[in-house]
Amino acid sequence: MKKLLVSLLSLATLHLSAQTYEYKVDLNNTANDQLSVELKVPELKQKDLYFHLPAMVPGTYSVYNFGRFVSDFKAFDTEGKELSVEHPDVNTWKIINAKTAAKVTYKVEDTWDTDKTNVIFEPAGTNIDKDVFVFNNHGIFGYFKKYEKLPYKIEVDRPEGLFGGTAMKRIGGDADTDIFETDSYNSLVDNPIMFSAPDTAMFKVGDASILIHTYSPTGRVKSKDLTADIKPILEAQREYLGGKLPIDHYVFLLFLNKEGGLYLSGSAGALEHSYSSFYCLFEGDPAGISQTIRDVAAHEFFHIVTPLNIHSKEIHDFDFINPKMSAHLWLYEGGTEYAAQHVQVKQKLVPIQQFLAAMSQKMRQAEMFNQAIPFTTMSKTCLDENKSQYSNVYLKGALINMCLDMELRKLSNGSYGTQALMTDLAKKYGIDKPFKDKCLFKEIGKVTGYRKEMKNFFASYVDGATPLPIESLMTDFGIDYKAKGTITELSVFGFNINSGVTYNFAEKLIELKADGIDAFGKDILGMQAGDLLYKWQGQELTMQSLQSILGQHQMAAKEGLELSVTVMRKDAEGVYKPKELKGTLRKVPVEVTHALFVNEKASPEQVKMRQAWLGDYISE
After folding, report:
1. Across the chain, what does the average pLDDT equal?
2. Whether the model pTM is above 0.90
3. What backbone torsions phi and psi does residue 87 show, to the nearest 5 degrees?
4. Domains along the chain?
5. What does DSSP assign to residue 140?
6. Which of 185, 209, 218, 366 is the most buried (most CB within 10 A)?
7. Would you say 149 and 137 are in contact if contact means Cβ atoms under 8 Å apart?
8. HEC-encoded secondary structure of 69-99
9. What is the percent of the chain where pLDDT is above 70?
10. Rounded distance, CA 56 to CA 271, Å?
11. Rounded to an integer, what distance in angstroms lies between the CA atom of residue 345 and that of residue 347?
12. Residues 304, 430: Cα–Cα separation, whole Å
């Protein structure tokens, strides 16, 4: 009987192995930024097989067509004979008479320095380099149609000096090989890998093990130093979520771009995953990266709540070729962004006025988008007719959640807000139980107990385009709202980087506008309308280096920092001549719209509600 059981188990193991995607890649064997990929085909016994790389992946909200980076695709039978292959569209390869298919090979090119016509957001892309390899796995590996749920085994031969940082399970390997496994294509896409020199740090937050793996081209930024920035926000989030995180492990993969330039598009940011997040940021000064890391990490890490534990069927059963969008980006991205800001004031990492300034800025920036489009409509159509409106999820999306939090606290006399709502929704649903897209608003009414009030709220402000009731809500919480007001804030550039500049096509330089220069730029630096930005802290500004250099400066900016800017200014004859401007960064009064201030004369009831919402950390 024992022998029979062993035999049955062996047969089951063999069958499972035969039903597994087995990939091999060799990082030691690359040429022209191309990687050779080999797949042992699972025993699928289909007459024809359709092999895909994704058109789109979760979290990006853009169609990228990753198949365009694949070339030299071939399929072979069990005897090594090449099979016929058709290529009907950019993301699909059809293997003809595939019942004997045993192996597929192809080359894949990285995305960071390829095809500038449809730039892929770096944190969703791939990089093939001798010092650092970035595997966002949807850009390297594919799947056969209707077989996305089969398990994967990924074997990577690599230089011995590189470490493969990932949240994916490592099941074997040696000094120069890693073998990873995961249970489906969705899970494979959800677990990026970064191979680089092993700069890691590990720590615990409650019961969760946290790993930071950093690639810094100059070596100035170390994982152990970033722990001091990341750990406090994670501890604050744990408390914010009721004292326990809904994950047992998490990995931060941080790629820091070379100083003075980026690999491709000039963008920076991060992409969330269930148990990890991948960051592509400017390297800059280690001392200046703190708040950027804190803000970005706070947002990406909070995605462990939504969409990991709270998501619709559209996300749960994601269609990589013909994706169907959920109506609830106000929750996935807006709710996450609001929580990332709210946790910092609630857990006393920043004072109340700093939080209010952040929300005020979101109100100003949200006005640049079409306010007549209901947020559910924008969410479902953000891949096509409303693609230009997507970024509003981080602005008005966060403001919707702020208003929802305040409305719930008003109804509950301060005792129930979006913190509790997210916890309750996560308990009702979770990783393996999606909600129906059309039923979410009704479910929130049930969970909170405020069915009528929630129905009216979502009908007006999310399913409709009624302006958010921010001014009236702020009054109830002891916050003064002013349509126009003066605030004091650090002048980072000396001008408004969003609206205070234009592009001089003749000179191919950024030109300062008269109404964009602030008090620091005008009175301290001596900037003038018509000045062309030529050098910043000694580095020449070009269209390729502009975003990197100014981004590094923004991260390092603080009171007392010495700033040197060289502008090209016309002389009396109208000829441009270089002129160096110098000054020390300082706070200046700035006229803004949608100004928010703590009401120092608030009533006891207003103070009580404000403290329930934001805590009591008033001091700057």
Report:
1. 91
2. no
3. -130, 75
4. 18-196 (2.60.40.3650), 200-304 (1.10.390.10), 313-474 (1.10.390.10), 492-585 (2.30.42.10)
5. T
6. 185
7. no
8. HEEEEEEEECCCCECCEEEEECCEEEECCHH
9. 93
10. 13
11. 5
12. 10
